[in-house]
Amino acid sequence: MEIQTIGSFLSYYETIRKRTLRVVSLVPPDKLEWRHAPDVFWSGDLARHSAAVERYTITENVFGRPSRYRGYGRELADGLENVLAFRTGCTAKPRIC
Q: Are residues 54 and 90 in contact, defined by beta-carbon separation less than 8 angstroms?
């Protein structure tokens, strides 16, 4: 896909956001924080990281402000229900994050 306009970029980006939320919602709750090795990203980390980057880095930069990204830890959202709420809240309503 070649992106040549802001509209086509936003459409593509929205598709990726929806796909990410759909995939995260399919992770079994007991596997959300499972790791195949210590100190590696896994499902919960990736879901929190992508939401936090979108809200605390990209959104801030769009408005000319410095990044406020502070990480992707469980303190942002712990458990599948909270991770989904954090992900949805950060991408749908940044003001609540």
A: yes
Cα(90)–Cα(97) distance, integer angstroms: 6
66, exposed or middle or buried, with CB in 10 Å at 0-12, 13-18, 19+?
exposed
* C-beta of residue 55 within 8 angstroms of C-beta of residue 76: no
- Tell me if the pTM is above 0.85: no
Q: Cα–Cα distance between 76 and 82 in angstroms, integer?
A: 9
pLDDT(71) > 90? yes
Q: Which two tokens stand for residue 41?
A: 């990203």
